[in-house]
């Protein structure tokens, strides 16, 4: 029972991490210091997708499920949980490459916007920053 709960908590944490990778750039728009946490996470997400790799959390979840007497799954977290909800069946390296490209494009747009806002504030001087 404990292993099953741990596996379920790990899936929730994994899903939260995926959401942070995809949407964390929105935090950077409001709070630029989030970039120090989000950039490495986004780089990891892009790398995992482009390399068609499997996140280390996926085998860990499978081991926890096996220890709890459950059957794990083959493939990646994305194949098991994300693809059935958001995408058609059949995760291929080509699909993963497109996911990585979309992830990269979204984050480049968000970081470009954040940089533009930051540079605009710095050009206007300290008087513009006071409420």
List keywords for this structure.
131 residues, mainly alpha, 6 helices, 0% strand
Mean pLDDT: 81
Number of helices in the DSSP assignment: 6
Largest sheet: none
Low-confidence stretches: none
- Alpha-carbon distance between the two ends: 54 Å
Describe the protein's architecture and organization:
It is elongated and about 60 Å long. Helix content is 78%, strand content 0%. The mean pLDDT is 81. The N and C termini lie far apart (54 Å). It has one domain. The protein has six helices and no strands. The chain has helices spanning 2-30, 35-50, 57-67, 77-86, 93-124, 126-129. The protein is an all-alpha fold. Helix 1 (2-30) crosses helix 2 (35-50) and helix 1 (2-30) packs across helix 5 (93-124).
What's the quick description here?
The chain is mainly alpha-helical and 131 residues long.
Question: What's the arrangement of secondary structure elements?
Answer:
Layout: H1 2-30, H2 35-50, H3 57-67, H4 77-86, H5 93-124, H6 126-129
Helix pairs in contact: 1-2, 1-3, 1-5, 2-5
Transmembrane segments: 9-29, 95-116
Protein name: DUF2784 domain-containing protein
Pfam family, one: DUF2784
